[in-house]
Amino acid sequence: AQTVTQSQPEMSVQEAETVTLSCTYDTSESDYYLFWYKQPPSRQMILVIRQEAYKQQNATENRFSVNFQKAAKSFSLKISDSQLGDAAMYFCGGRKLTFGTGTRLTIIP
Amino acid sequence: NAGVTQTPKFQVLKTGQSMTLQCAQDMNHNSMYWYRQDPGMGLRLIYYSASEGTTDKGEVPNGYNVSRLNKREFSLRLESAAPSQTSVYFCASRELDRAYGYTFGSGTRLTVV
Q1: Smallest CA–CA separation between A14 and chain B, in Å?
Q2: pLDDT tens-digit map of A69-93
Q3: B1: Cβ–Cβ under 8 A, 6 or more apart, which residues?
């Protein structure tokens, strides 16, 4: 089984600044995938970025990147140049989409 | 548009009533899932179907039943609704290659009074 923990219920950042959302996980598997999903007020779940555990290189998607520390079982999301549209709940997820409890991100204009 | 379609989007039930939440995907995905989302609890897996003809319990299956009608459709049934089942329900599907992410429906907000 895999467990996922997000220890930051809420975060805020000034527009155009950088913010990092934390996620830790626990798994007994050696090969797995991790995901970050965004849920804006529309309620739709949107895949932001995914990381393959066997890859050393951290995944990057435009302004979104991860810091994947396999030994520490840490999978944080960095958002650069924050925009108002980034305001949402962010969920970290793993195999069978076990989710953390989410981090609510507020962007301050 | 291709994706996961859930119906209805909103529903109010009285305690003890039954209903079925419908989910259909047109992406030819093998795996389908039902989640519930509650404040402070994140998303919790209710049931999943790894392939047509199979279903398995997730983290919180009590009070629910599912049917994988065919490859496209995966329904969730509440036989006797309880106020504790007030939640937002999401259906999701995934390709066999687990490198790909999951595609979610837009959710059903269910209130049991």
Answers
A1: 24
A2: 989 999 999 999 999 999 999 999 8
A3: none
